[in-house]
Structure formats: structure tokens, C-alpha cells
Amino acid sequence: MIKKEWVDNGFINEPVGKEVNLKSEIRKLCEEKQAVIMAHYYTEGVIQDIADFVGDSLALAQKAAKTKARIIVMCGVHFMGETAKILCPDKKVLVPDLNATCSLAESCPAEDFARFVHEHPGYTVISYVNTTAATKAVTDVVVTSSNARQIVESFPKDEKIIFGPDRNLGSYINSITGRDMLLWDGACHVHERFSAGKILELKKAFPEAKVLAHPECKDTVLKVADVIGSTAALLKYAAQSETTAFIVVTESGILHEMQKTCPDKKFIPVPPEGNACGCNECNYMRLITLEKLYNTLKYEWPEITVPQEVAEKAVRPIHSMLDISEKLGL
Ligand code: 13P
Fold first, then answer.
1. Residue 200 pLDDT > 80, yes or no?
2. Confidence of residue 128 (pLDDT cuts 50, 70, 90)
3. Does ligand 1 have an atom closer than 6 angstroms to the CB of 56?
4. Which residue's C-alpha comes closest to atom 10 of ligand 1?
């Protein structure tokens, strides 16, 4: 039984005794309950290591859509759990801490976005996956940073498009496709904190290093990058490139996989603006801990729910994304 005082904060804070071997108990619970753990590359390394599957936003959605498990534990932020629930309404989807939200999703309240869409009749609405289910419900096609360019380009050149909520990703896609999409004014609080100045300083200190940046960064930052790509694209580039040092301009959780795949290469995290050193971390992703994951599996709580009428509308643009991605081999 879950005690009320353990659940008030959106996660179960029942103290876990020191005698509990969290890693083996988590794996045991997964087996007993036919649960699968999925994690984003921005979570702590220890979470990525215990997960059955680690991926970027696109891969997590693709994997969730196909899993045979009874329970999906999504170690990431709330919209990732929602996307999995919308794709798998019959499965139980758990996120170990409901406070793990996303600044991009928050920057695009569904009612405001719906009003904006209503004010622009004749526009096709493309939304980044980092949105709430209610925002997806007023969207035509969802994209992630791994497929945004290709999905935008799948529309005729003169298609009138609204792109939300990330103004940085939207403006980057406009610049590489020659489109003039109407952009929602949202941003990711982690990627916005990078500054070109800090990257140039690091470039001086590590002249041999290539700068890898996520397209959620500001254009002043993207201008000093050697490679711009999604989480998956940056990981692939780092693994395949002959270069042995990289300045990494995205959430620092990605360094765990980079270092694991390329133990002989050097990966230098960029601190947020105003900080002399350190990493740029998403405080929401870091809410996912082994203790919360263990308690979540044990009590099967907190569970993600999406009102049926919202889910019925939101599932269409997500399926459109998955279908186009499959056709394009992404
Ligand atoms: P990708 O996983 O698509 O690279 O996006 C990163 C992100 O914003 C996760 O919240």
C-alpha cells in the first residue's frame, strides 16, 4: 500500500533501506511485472545504464509504439510518457517523477497555441514532440529534432506552415530549407543557456576539437558550431568521425553515451552562460533517480493518463510522424 504522505509531491518518497540493492531489485521488478525501462540520453548515466532501451525523442516514441511489455517506465520528461501513453493506450505508462516537465512544452500552453492556429487559417501545423498532449491535439504533424528537416521538406515549398514551440529549431529549419515558417516563441531553458563566447574560449583551449551543437541552441551559438544535429545525429557523428576531441553543446547527459561508445576520445561539456565551469544539465531530467525508479516499479505509480478525447486527436500527428519517418528510413 502506498502511504498518502509518500505521494503528495508527484513521486513516491518512501525511504529505501540501505540493504536494498536497487539495481538488482529494479531488474527483478521489471521481470516480475513485464515492465520495460526506457531512458533519454539526458538522464543520469546510472539511469541510462539500467534501462532496457536508451534513445532520443524519436527513438523512444518508435520503441514505445512497438513494445510488447505490459508496463513502460519512461525515464525522461512528462511529454515522453504522454507520447508513449497516446501510442499505447492499453499499457500502463509510468514516469518516476511527475515534476519532470519540459520548459519547451511549458512555453506553449495548448489554449494559446490553439488560438494562434485559429488566427492563421490555411496553415499546416507542425509541432515539436516537446509539447503537451493537448498541444499535439491541435497539430497536423509532430516532429523531433531527428526528422524535422525531412518532414518539413515533405511539404510543398509554398506550404504555409506554423512551427512550434521551439523558435531556435524552427529558425534553424527555416535557414536550411529556405522556408518561411511562422514560429511560436518558445525555447528550451537548457539550450538557451549556451553562449558563443564560452564556446570560442573552449575552442582556443582545445583547437583540435570539433564543436557539436543541438539545433535547440540560439543561432549565435549554431554559427560557431562545426556540426549541428539531434541527439542521435551528434552521437553518430562523434562515433564515426576521425576527430578525437569534441566540444559538446547540448545537455551534458549525452556525454555518458559518447564516452561509453568512444572511450579514447575527449568530450568537453560547455558550461551554461555565466558559469566558469561545470555542465549544462536539465534539472527536470535529473529528477529521475534510481530510488524513484525502484519505488515507481514497486507501486506502479505515478501513472501517466491522457483524457481520451485529447488522446484521440493527439495520436494522429504522432502517427503521421512515425509513418513519414518510416517511409524516409529514419
Ligand atoms: P532529441 O532527443 O530529439 O535530440 O531532443 C532533445 C530534447 O529536447 C529532449 O527533451
1. yes
2. very high
3. yes
4. 130
Task: Give 107's Cβ-side CA count (13 Å radius).
Answer: 18
Q: So what's the pLDDT on residue 330? A: 87
pLDDT, average across residues 299-316: 97
Output the pTM of the full model.
0.95
Closest to 80 (Cα-Cα) out of 144, 172, 35, 4: 144
Tell me the C-alpha distance between 177 and 161, whole Å. Answer: 13
Locate the ligand 1 atom nearest the alpha carbon of residue 42 and give its number. Answer: 9
Query: Is 107 a pocket residue for ligand 1 (Cβ < 6 Å)?
Result: no
Q: Which atom of ligand 1 is nearest to the CA of 282?
A: 10
Pocket test of ligand 1: the residue of 43, 48, 56, 227 to mutate, having most ligand atoms within 8 Å of its CB, is 56
Nearest CA to ligand 1 atom 9: 57
Which residue in 152, 101, 94, 153 sits closest to 128, CA to CA? Answer: 152
**C-alpha 56 – ligand 1 centre gap (Å):** 6
Find out whether the beta carbon of 146 lies less than 6 Å from any atom of ligand 1: yes
Q: Where does the pLDDT of residue 194 fall: very low under 50, low under 70, confident under 90, or very high at 90 and above?
A: very high
Among 217, 242, 243, 259, residue whose Cα is nearest residue 49: 259
| Cell 556540426, located at residue | 227
Ligand 1 contact via 230 beta carbon (within 6 Å): yes
Distance 222 CA to ligand 1 centre (A): 16
Is the CB of 57 within 6 Å of ligand 1? yes
Q: Tell me the pLDDT band of 289, cut-offs 50, 70 and 90.
A: very high
Domains parsed from the chain with CATH numbers? 4-101+284-309 (3.40.50.10800), 104-187+313-328 (3.40.50.10800), 194-269 (3.40.50.10800)
Check pLDDT > 80 for residue 226: yes
- Report the side by side order of strands in the sheet with 182-183: 141-143, 124-128, 161-164, 182-183
